[in-house]
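HUMAN: Quick job: go over this next protein and say how the chain folds.
***
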Amino acid sequence: MSLQTLARLAVWAVCAIPILGQPRDAAEPLKALLEQAEANNLELAAMRTRSDEARGNLRQAGVKPPLTLEVGGASGRPLRTVGEEEYSAGVGKTFETGGKRARRIDAAEVRLTQTAAEYQERVRQLGYEIKSRYADVLTETQRIEVLDQILASSQRSLELTKARVEGGDAAQLEQTLLDVEIGRLMAQRATVAGRRESALADLRRVTGLAPGSDIALGSTFYSGPIASAMDTLNTAALEQRPDLKLARLVEQLGDAELRLVEAEGRPDVSVTARYFKRNGQLDNLYGVNAQGARVLLRDRDDILAVGISIPILTKNRNLGNFEAAQARILSARQRARYLMNSIPLEVESAWRRWSAARSTAGSLESAVMPQAQRNLDVIQQAYQLGQLRLLDVLNEQRRLLDLRLSTVDAQAEAARAFAELERAVGGLIR
């Protein structure tokens, strides 16, 4: 085989790189990352702690007002009023009116459910962030793989061209052109490698992994199965979107707080019972005791007092709380109405973006790339016949390289669009 034939084969090998399809296990690395994020992400851990806090508040909401014990004493000795003393002991109990305890429990239960919805909403957003950044990492990884294969083939072409130059079968300019092309490819690879490291660091951050931790990457993008019809996706989104559930829970919480404010506007009743023991001395009044001795007259009283205390409340006492609760209800209701209107539009936008990206990637892979490869073959043959220059071959190779990188970008866009579609629907699409 001649050196010219070897050179032509080496140049052809530069772009003979297959476009990978999507195997069934393309979602497995993503699934593992999502599981790691739920276990390691400190923000999610903090939100789980909030659930514990809400459970504690629910337990506390059911506590009844405690009994109060009062003990007191009084003496006239410090003021030189000898003989005057009083001691008392009492117990009190406050009875809540208006169902305050039940209203507190209702509000605390809604808050507990609300923390669960907030957690699911953060998981939804975090899932999208992980899938999007995973697509960024895989994009740069595949771009590096394409560039590495082209660089390796270009190096082989350069070695064969050097042999041709030494044998007088090619001009020195051809070797120089290949040197420049290899330098350009190496600079492009360095840029892509830097973006990949940055994307990896960002992926570790959102996943909650330590710096430098290994991340298992798949070989291809995951752009999902054939999605259901938009009507089906819209119905699923309205049923399972955590942010819509959260808005409705905020409205329920506002209703519960409003009932609590109304109950707190009713006065509680406090009942007390107190025993008094009083000792007194009558000055300069004497009597005779059983033994006939002269003694000062003393007075001793035992008293039992019972009382009821009811605070006098005005209508304006809870007016501010009442207005604030009404405003929260209105705000949550408007938020829920906004989501009801916007969620179908979000689903439609994501679905159309995903469909367009899938179509673009499929078109590039099945139609454009094969034709571009055939064009390069023709130009290579014309170059071997002396009708074109090596520069023409290199220009066509660059065009094919750009197409390959564009195909990688299109596949990545399809993966990001599917992640956006799952976020819009509020759950995994099977």
About this structure: Residues 102 and 217 are 53 Å apart (CA to CA). The first strand starts at residue 68 and ends at 75. The mean pLDDT is 82.
